[in-house]
C-alpha cells in the first residue's frame, strides 16, 4: 500500500549527516539534563489550571502524568538510541510505521512544539504583567504605575483582547532563531539553577504555612467528567505539559556511557526529582492559600479558559484565577517581595523554553521538507545566518498570534493532544520493530517492552480522552487539514513516491 511506504532505517541514517559522538555522559549528567529540560512553564503557570480542575487532588494528577511520561520515555529511548537523527517522533515513525502515519505524527508535532511555545509565551507574560502591576521599580514609581491596560494583559476569553507581552516575546525569540543566536551550556545551567532555587524558596515558605482545612474537599471535581476537561484525570491531561521535555534524556543516548544502565536512571531519576518538586509545590500552594476550584451551577468546576470562568475571576483573588500562581501565593502569605523575585525567576528562565520549543518545531518541518512532504522553500537556509529562516519566521508568527489571543489552559491542552499522539505512536513503533528487526543493534532496550509500551499507549489514550472538548476538537480539525495537505502535496512529492505516485 502506498500510504504505508516505509523509509528504511539505514536510509534515514544515511540521509542525516553522520558524526561519531563520544560516549561521555553518566547517570548524574543525564538526570540533571532531564531536570533542566522538564522544569518550566508547567509548574510555574499550570498549577492554577490544575487547581481549578482538581482542587487539592492535583497532587494525584502530577503522579498520573509522571507515570505516563515515564512509560513513554522508556519506549522513546529505544528508538532514539537506534536513530540518533533529527526529526524526533516523526523520523522514528517514518522508519517503522510508514509515511502516512509519519505525516500525521509530524503534523501533530506542530501542536506540541508551536502551540507549546505559545503556552510558555502566555505563561511568561502572566509573570511579567504581575511584576509590572506590583513593582515600584525600587521606589522610583508607585506600585502599578508600570502596568499595561487590562485589554493588553491577556487574550480572548480571559478578560482581555490582545496579550501584547506574549506577542512581543514570541517575536523576539523568532528573531534570535533567525540570526542563529543560541544559548551556551553555561547560560542554560544558570537558568536551570534559577528555576530550581525559585521552586525551593516557594516550598520552604509555603509548606510550613499549610492548613489541613484547605484540603477539604480533596476531590471537588471527582476523578473526571465523561466529556473530559475537569477532575483529577482532566488535571493530569493538562499537567502532562509540565513534564514535556524529558525526551532530552533519550535523545542523548548516542553520547551516553553504558546506555542500557544510565538511560533508565536518567529518565526515571529526572522524572522522579521533578515529580517530588511538583508534589511539594502543589501541596504548598493548595495547603497554604487554598486551591479549591470555582464551581458552576451544576456543582462541578468551571472549565478554565471559558467565559464563565473569566467572569467568576474578574474580581477574585483566588489562586485558581491567577496567571502567576506561585508569585501570587507568596504575596497572599505576606511575602510580596519574595513573590516578586519568584516572578523575576520565571521571567528570566522561561524564554529559553520558548526558544527550544520553536527550535524543535522548525527542525521537524525542516526534516519533513527535506523528505519532500512539504514545499522545498521551507527548508531554505539563510545565506548569512545559516538557519532555516523561512519556516522559522512562519512558525514565529503563528506562535505570536496564538499566544496573543488564546488562554494558557486551552493552548496547553491542545499542545498535549499532539504530544500524546506522538508518544503513543513511538510506543507502538518499538513493538513493531522488535518483531520486524529483532536482531538490529539497540544501544538501549526498553525493559519489559511488551508490558511497558502497551501501558504507555493506554496512558496516552486515557489522558487524551480527558483533555478539554476544545482541545480534542482542535486536534480533529488540525488532523483533517493535515490529511488534505498530504493528499494534495506530500503524497505526490514525497521522495519515496517514485513510480507509485499517480
Automatic annotation (TrEMBL):
<feature type="transmembrane region" description="Helical">
    <location>
        <begin position="58"/>
        <end position="79"/>
    </location>
</feature>
<feature type="transmembrane region" description="Helical">
    <location>
        <begin position="156"/>
        <end position="178"/>
    </location>
</feature>
<feature type="transmembrane region" description="Helical">
    <location>
        <begin position="230"/>
        <end position="253"/>
    </location>
</feature>
<feature type="transmembrane region" description="Helical">
    <location>
        <begin position="100"/>
        <end position="124"/>
    </location>
</feature>
<keyword id="KW-0812">Transmembrane</keyword>
<keyword id="KW-1133">Transmembrane helix</keyword>
<feature type="transmembrane region" description="Helical">
    <location>
        <begin position="338"/>
        <end position="360"/>
    </location>
</feature>
<dbReference type="Pfam" id="PF13520">
    <property type="entry name" value="AA_permease_2"/>
</dbReference>
<feature type="transmembrane region" description="Helical">
    <location>
        <begin position="415"/>
        <end position="434"/>
    </location>
</feature>
<feature type="transmembrane region" description="Helical">
    <location>
        <begin position="190"/>
        <end position="210"/>
    </location>
</feature>
<feature type="transmembrane region" description="Helical">
    <location>
        <begin position="390"/>
        <end position="409"/>
    </location>
</feature>
<feature type="transmembrane region" description="Helical">
    <location>
        <begin position="446"/>
        <end position="465"/>
    </location>
</feature>
<dbReference type="InterPro" id="IPR002293">
    <property type="entry name" value="AA/rel_permease1"/>
</dbReference>
<keyword id="KW-0472">Membrane</keyword>
<protein>
    <submittedName>
        <fullName>Amino acid permease</fullName>
    </submittedName>
</protein>
<feature type="transmembrane region" description="Helical">
    <location>
        <begin position="265"/>
        <end position="286"/>
    </location>
</feature>
<feature type="transmembrane region" description="Helical">
    <location>
        <begin position="471"/>
        <end position="489"/>
    </location>
</feature>
<keyword id="KW-0813">Transport</keyword>
<feature type="transmembrane region" description="Helical">
    <location>
        <begin position="27"/>
        <end position="46"/>
    </location>
</feature>
